[in-house]
Amino acid sequence: MARILACTDGSIYAPSIYGHAAWAASRLNAAVEVLHMLDRHPGAAREAELSGAIGFDASQDLLRKMVELDEAQGRLAQQRSRAILEDAEWVLRAAGIAEVTLTLRHGALVEALPEFEKAADLVVVGKRGEAADFAKGHLGSNLERVLRTSICPVLVASRAFKPISRAVIAYDGRAASRKAVEYLARRPLLHGVSVHLLTVGNAGTDEEGLAEARFRLGEAGLDVHMQILPGRPEDVIARVVAESGADLLVMGAYGHGVLTRMFLGSVTSTLLRECRVPALVFR
């Protein structure tokens, strides 16, 4: 059975993450595992910082109170985490997903992801998390790390979920975009969705590869419109997404060199920030 891994931190993107996970699971006939990571307990670091700062007696009394406070905060964090997972389960089951697994782990998402995505067909994360700077439009730090390291396609949830009826596939002929085409041709994720297959470049730019991609998707039963447009990729793709009323952007990202693994690609980063629709990203 296919499996969707939905990663949540309980931020305002959480309902959208569950909505997108439910949408994908219903189309792929998949189970959903909801993963919530609880930050490691910071008490020890604070205790070390206090050492030598004040007198012995006062230090011991303060340390005791800090330990009690840390324990209380730890219990509260556990309760919050359970509430987040229970809310996710309620939303997913209400959406008709029969098999839902809840997992709570301590640590960082990027450290746990390799273990959990081994059994996943798709990872769902929010565009931003609790710590993101919304005013500056920054992407969540977890998102950037997940996109750099995940071996699975990553569905990046937008601020709010809405049914997906139109999709733009940004196709550049590279391995990641070919992987996207093959993934979508082999699975019913976009069946019934109007697909705009877009390449940015001059006339004659990999027309053969684009035609092959269109044929592969059409052979799988998708309704595909093909187009080549000139211009800067990030500008053209963002414009087509907006003007076509697309509900989803599909794109490849990242190469295999050292630098491309270290940094989020500029085109990918720009599109994730500027486009207000969810993005299905392949690497």
Summary keywords:
Rossmann fold, 10 strands, single chain, ten-stranded mixed sheet, alpha/beta
Characterization of the model:
With 283 residues, this protein is of the alpha/beta class. The protein has two domains: 1-161, Rossmann fold (3-Layer(aba) Sandwich), CATH 3.40.50.620; 163-282, Rossmann fold, CATH 3.40.50.620. The protein is built from ten helices and ten strands. Strand 7, helix 7 (207-219) and strand 8 (223-229) form a beta-alpha-beta unit.
What's the total number of strands?
A: 10
Unreliable residue runs: 42-48, 132-137, 255-263
Domain module count = 2
Q: What is the percentage of strand-forming residues?
A: 15-25%
**CATH homologous superfamily caption of the largest domain:** HUPs
Radius of gyration: 22 Å
Into which percent range does the helicity of residues fall?
Answer: 40-55%
CATH class of the largest domain: Alpha Beta
**SS-based class:** alpha/beta
Distance between the termini: 23 Å
The order of strands across the largest sheet is: 3-2-1-4-5-10-9-6-7-8
Order of helices and strands: EHEHHEHEHEEHEHEHEHHE
Oligomerization: single chain
Which fold name corresponds to the CATH topology of the largest domain?
Answer: Rossmann fold
The largest β sheet comes out as:
10 strands, mixed
Shape: elongated
What is the arithmetic mean of pLDDT?
Answer: 86
> How large is the count of helical segments?
10
CATH architecture of the largest domain: 3-Layer(aba) Sandwich
